[in-house]
Each structure stands twice: as C-alpha cells, then as structure tokens.
Here is the input.
Amino acid sequence: MALDLDDLAERGLLSADRLDELRRVADRFSVALTEDVTALIDRNDPADPIAAQFVPRAEELKTSAEESDDPIGDERWSPVEGIVHRYPDRVLLKPILVCPVYCRFCFRREQVGHENALLSPAALAAALDYIRAHPEIWEVIVTGGDPFLLSPRRLAALVQALDAMSHVAVIRFHTRVPVADPRRVRPALVTALRSEKAVYVVVHANHPRELTDPVRAAIGRLTRAGIPVLSQSVLLRGVNDNAAVLEALFRGLVAMRVKPYYLHHPDLARGTGHFRLGIEEGQRLVSGLRGRVSGLCQPTYVLDIPGGYGKVPVGPSYVNPASTPGERVVEDPAGGRHSYPPPPDKTG
Here is the structure.
C-alpha cells in the first residue's frame, strides 16, 4: 500500500501544522511511500536521509531560473510516445509512468504519478514498431516510471516482443522496486524477464540503510536466475554527500552481487535545488573513494548535460600536463604526484 500525506501525518512523519503547506507540494509533485521505505525513517532525526529522499518539504516550491520541467531533454528526443532516442544505438522505452515511491529529486517528477500513466495498447504498439523499424537500436532500456509495477503478464509480453527483434541484443530494466517494495520481486516477475537476449536490471539506491534483508532477498532472486544487476545512485546533499556513506553503500551493493554503475550528479529539475552540490564537491567525494575501496565499488560519476545533450563522466582527473612536452604528472590515491614519460620518438 502506498502512503500519502495524510498517512505520513498519522504516523508522526509530518506535523499537522505543515499539512496545508505540503499539500501545495503534493498538488504539483506526486507523493507516495511504501511500507518498507517508511519503516526505515528515523522519526527522531530531523535530518534523516531516508525521509529526505521521500517525504515532501516546502523547499520543493522554490525554483530557480536554471531549473526545468524536462531537465535532460526527454521531449526533444522523443519521436513517438513512450520512446526517447537520444543515442544512436539505444532507446528508452517508457511503458508506465507510475512509481512505488516518488523521489523528491526525480528528474521526471513532472511526468510521473498522473492519470493515464500506462501507455495505451496502440501507443505501446507504435513504440515497439519504432524499435523494429530502426535496426541500429542495439539496446532497449525499459524505464518510466517503474516497469516492475507492470504485471508479470505485461512484462513477459514486452520481453517477448523485444526478444523477437533480431537487432536488439540487450534489454535493460531500470527500477526502484527491488529496493522500495522488494516483496514485488516474486518468482512470476523473475520468470517474466526470461529472454534469449541479455537482460540486465539496474536498481536505484542512495543510502546503505536501504539495503535491508528483504532487499537482499529480492535481488538474490534476480541474480540466482542469472540476471546481472547493476545500480544507479544520485549524489544528494543531506543524503549521501559523505565518503563514508558512499563507501558503505557501494560495498553493501557489491556484497549483494550488484555492480555500482552510475553515480549521478543531480539534475536541474524544478524544486530540487536543496539537494544539489557543486561538481567540485562531488569530485572530491569520488576521489576520496579511489584507493580506499575496491574498483568493483567505484561507479562512474556522471552528469546529464542540461537540455538533452547526453551523459558525460565528470569524475576527477588524475593526469595533468607537465612542463616537458608530452610528459604527464599522475596523482596517486594518496595525493602523491609522479611523472609519466611520453612515448618513444619513432622518427629515427
């Protein structure tokens, strides 16, 4: 069962005198929490990192000029409803725009949680026809919303349709369900993902407290079925802007056979400024992990360039020019600097 504002107030997660103000937030941006997520919130901690991710606050009504209702340009790259074709060899397929929880920093926060959140049968057929008609599409990323809220029957039909397209080699699902509502990851859902193609699942977690025993069980059902699982996280002020927290998160994921894939710099979505930190601050945090944790625990720190120009790595650089032409100075994890020679001169 999803919890709304009244449920949160009844459980002591919101004070009654804030309800009117927060209803204004909920009128603009969807609000829902699952029982699993709600149980993780420390009611005695006003800076609780789980509450910060999911419980609405008045700061969301503050917007700045650089913020956008479509910060990474989905609409610009959408040739048909439900498809985003930003890169030549892959597309996003969005069959559903409902989530089990609504992250307060979401870059699609103005698209999700409304009525008519399922693609109509005709729109889904047109989206699949678009993929069939473009042989350059090598990978289909099923996202939303959250595709794991689809019934196993619908999921299986979607996988079977993509499986039948000879040029599609990889099917990737992006989901919060295994972390936010892990009991949904039942055997029927796992069976629905069976394909002759490579199927990957990418889960979203931002804080080590999210990695509970039910989450481990849900992800275990996927990995035991032979489905590789990766993770995405968002670097958020007040949630995980701390090297020790990131270390615990990434180690916890890897111990569950989940490879940390991306650490996202937050997008310029409306009403999310209180979550954003500077790229330089993010680089310092990421640099602090180098040499401190296994390479398995190191995601790529990335930024989606505002406006839809693509995703690029923005992590720290360890190689800098030296005074000698062609030579480089390389910085080690402890901050030591070392010269590295240019290649041999092959003109002689």
